[in-house]
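Record 3'-phosphate/5'-hydroxy nucleic acid ligase, 411 aa.
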Amino acid sequence: MKNAEYDVMNVEAGRPVKMWTRGVPVEDAARAQLTNTARMPFIYKHIAVMPDVHLGKGSTIGSVVPTLGAIIPAAVGVDIGCGMMAAKTTLTANDLPDSLAKLRNAIERAIPHGISPKTRGFKGRDEGSWHDTPSAVDAAWTTLKDEFDVICAKTPRLRHSNNHRHLGTLGSGNHFVEVCLDEEGAVWFMLHSGSRGVGNVIGTHFIEVAKQDMRRHFINLPDQDLAYLSEGTEHYDDYVQAVGWAQQFARLNREVMMQNLIAAVRTVITKPFSTHVEAVNCHHNYVQKETHFGKDVMVTRKGAVSARPGELGIIPGSMGAKSFIVRGKGNPESFNSCSHGAGRTMSRTEAKRRYTLADQVRATEGVECRKDEQVIDEIPMAYKDIDAVMHAQRDLVEVVHTLKQVVCVKG
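=>
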C-alpha cells in the first residue's frame, strides 16, 4: 500500500507501520522487530519509521513508538537522552589554524572521552570521566542532585553509577565532538552524547524490572525486550521520574561539554568570537508525553528527532560525511519526527571485518580525526547514504544548513 509520502506495512493483529524509507535499504530483521512491536496492545494509531531505520537492541533504531497506558523501557534503551547539540559561531574557515591537529588536541584535553578497556565491568574510575570535577561541572550537578537523591532513595543501586563524574564527558562508540563548516564557510561546533553511565544504569535497572513484572504476571511476549511497565503502577511512576531526570542530565551534559569545547578552541584561536548565533540541543533517544490526533500519549523516539513545525533539529552523517541542521515541517503522520542520522547498514563487527585501516584513512581524507583500527567500525561505508536518507524524509524536514566536519574527536 502506497501514497505520496510513505509506505505502509500492515501487521496482522497489530497496528500499521508507516515507513519513510523509499530509496534506502531496510533489513528483514528490522521489519520483523517492528512487526513484533506493532502487535503490542497499547500501541497508539501506528508506528512511524524513519529512513535511518535498522535493527536495534530492545527496539528498532529509527522508530517512533506512541503508547497508551504503558512504556517499554528497552525501547528507550540505556543511552537515555542521547542526542545532539550544535552551535554556529562568528568564526569562518579562514580563522581556523593551519594545524587542525593542534585544535583537535586541545579539545581532547578539555573533554574526557572514551573508556579504558580495563574499566569495563570494573567499579573504579572510568578514564572517560573526570578525575577532579571542575567547578562548572559541580555547579551544573547541583541543579540535578536533589532529584537524583529522591530517585536513589527509591532505587539505591543508582547511586553507585558514574553520575557526577560523567557530567560534561563524551563517552565512546558513535559519540563525537566536531568542528564543522557550513555552506557559507561559517564555523560550527557540534557534539553527540547522552546520559552516560547513570543513564545506562537507570535503563538497565528498569528494563530488568519490566521483565520481572512480565514473569510475575505470566505475560508472554514475542520478544522479552518488549517487556513493559503499566501506567498506574509504582514501577511506571518511578521509571517516568528516573527517565525524565536522565534526559535532563543528558541535555545538561551536552551544554557543559559545549562550554568546555568553546573554551578549548579559544586557547588555539585567539581572535575574539561569539557562539550560539544559531543553536540546537535535541534528544534522539527518549520518551515524553505529547498530544497527537487529539490524545495525550507517551511517545518513545528510538533514534528519531522531534520535528514540530519550525523546530530546529540535527541530522548528522557518519564520520567523514555531511550533517544537516533541519527545520521540522510538523508532519502529523510521523508524530512530528525525523531521522536522527544516516543509520547503520551493518554491525560494528561486520564493518571491522569488511574494511581496512587504509579504507578508513581514505574515507576520512581532509578530516583531522583518529585514523586507527579501533574506529574502523565508524567508517562512512558502514552507514546508509545520507543524501538518500534526507531525500526519503523531505516531507518531514527542510534543510537549513549543510555541515562538513574538519575536526572530529571520538572516544
